[in-house]
Design goal:
Blueprint: E1 8-17, E2 21-26, E3 30-37, E4 51-58, E5 64-67, E6 78-87, E7 91-95, E8 101-105, E9 123-130, E10 136-140, H1 143-147, E11 161-170, E12 173-179, E13 186-192, E14 205-213, E15 219-222, H2 227-244, E16 249-250, H3 258-265, H4 269-281, E17 285-288, E18 291-294, H5 299-311
Parallel strand pairs: 13-15
Antiparallel strand pairs: 1-2, 1-4, 2-3, 4-5, 6-7, 6-9, 7-8, 9-10, 11-12, 11-14, 12-13, 14-15, 16-18, 17-18
Family: Belongs to the CvfB family.
Domain S1 motif: 159-224
InterPro entries: CvfB_fam (IPR014464), CvfB_S1_2nd (IPR048588), CvfB_S1_3rd (IPR048587), CvfB_S1_st (IPR039566), CvfB_WH (IPR040764), NA-bd_OB-fold (IPR012340), S1_domain (IPR003029), WH-like_DNA-bd_sf (IPR036388)
Length: 312
């Protein structure tokens, strides 16, 4: 039997050696002695001659060590692990359920896009592997890893709001795992940049609406409300912005480039134009050249029109 870090194996307790713990191994004398420290015997105190299922890891001095603690991930497996800490030289340390953490090296993340790197508390989908010395390491899960465990999204999901985790970030959007609930591990999905209400980072959990069930069982999602509901909310946001501006004007209009609209309001160009169209139809704003202004009206008229906007 090959004894490797990251695996759970059945070993025999050979002897107890105070003040350290118990030495265990394969059978009575097969292979090396491995220490089960007193602090790692969290299930029960073993006796010499007992056999026990133990998880193997390397201690701080690089020695193979055993524990009775149950890990959240094992060698070759994929799991969703929370970010516990970050070191700018080494990478992210992930909680793995045994009182110590699993390292996700920096090279697993896009160096040129640090704004999408995880934050403490985010949850990353990773696979455990070994480095060249046989120590446990994590790598970000790939599509082929997910394909082994995900299910095809049911048609009943269309239009529903779901919780999802960002698994990878691209220039035009993000890949996600949509929470499966009682159905299973989850379904794969994609959120296009134009359907985001704000930028997303790897490992972030967020809510989104299923807009399409694809033939391959994956889903397309949007963080925005349906057009009619979203139009009213976006119109209210723009109206509030104008009311805070000196003179009730802003240098944004139908002619403003989409990237500026996205950066300033978190809206796509089409959503911005729909909201402006509603405000102009309701007589609340007007456009002059490349600027948008609150309509000059009495306080009563403006209040009445604002109330109509909220009701419509």
């Amino acid at each position: 039997m090959i004894l490797e870090a990251g695996t759970t194996v059945t070993l025999r307790v050979r002897r107890e050696t105070p003040p350290y713990g118990w030495f265990v191994g394969v059978g009575e004398d097969g292979g090396p002695d491995i220490l089960l420290p007193y602090g790692e015997a969290v299930v029960r105190r073993p006796q010499p001659g007992d056999e026990a299922d133990l998880f193997l890891f390397h201690d701080d001095k690089g020695r193979l060590t055993a524990t009775q603690r149950a890990p959240l991930i094992r060698l070759g497996e994929m799991a969703r692990l929370a970010v516990a800490d970050f070191h700018p030289r080494f990478g992210y340390f992930l909680e793995m359920g045994i009182g110590r953490q699993l390292l996700l090296p920096l090279k697993q993340l896009p160096e040129e896009r640090r704004n999408v790197w995880p934050q403490t508390g985010d949850e990353l989908h990773v696979v455990m592997k070994h480095d060249k010395e046989g120590r446990m390491l994590a790598r970000l899960a790939k599509i082929e890893d997910f394909e082994q465990v995900v299910f095809r999204a049911p048609g009943s999901w269309k239009g529903e709001w779901k919780e999802a985790w960002v698994t990878d970030v691209f220039r035009d959007g993000v890949f996600v795992l949509v929470e499966g609930g009682v159905l299973g591990y989850g379904a794969l999905g994609f959120v296009h940049e134009s359907a985001m209400s704000r930028p997303l980072r790897i490992g972030e959990k967020f809510s989104a609406r299923v807009t399409q069930i694809r033939e391959d069982g994956r889903v397309t999602l949007s963080m925005r409300q349906p057009k009619e509901t979203g139009r009213m909310e976006d119109a209210d946001r723009i109206l509030a912005f104008l009311r805070e501006r000196p003179g009730g004007g802003m240098p944004y209009s139908d002619e403003t480039p989409a990237d500026i609209i996205q950066k300033r309001f978190g809206l796509s160009k089409s959503a911005f134009k729909r909201a402006l169209g509603k405000l102009m139809k309701d007589g609340l704003v007007t456009q002059k050249a490349s600027w948008t202004y609150l309509e000059e009206a009495s306080g009563t008229d403006t209040a009445e029109k604002a109330g109509e906007t909220s009701r419509n």
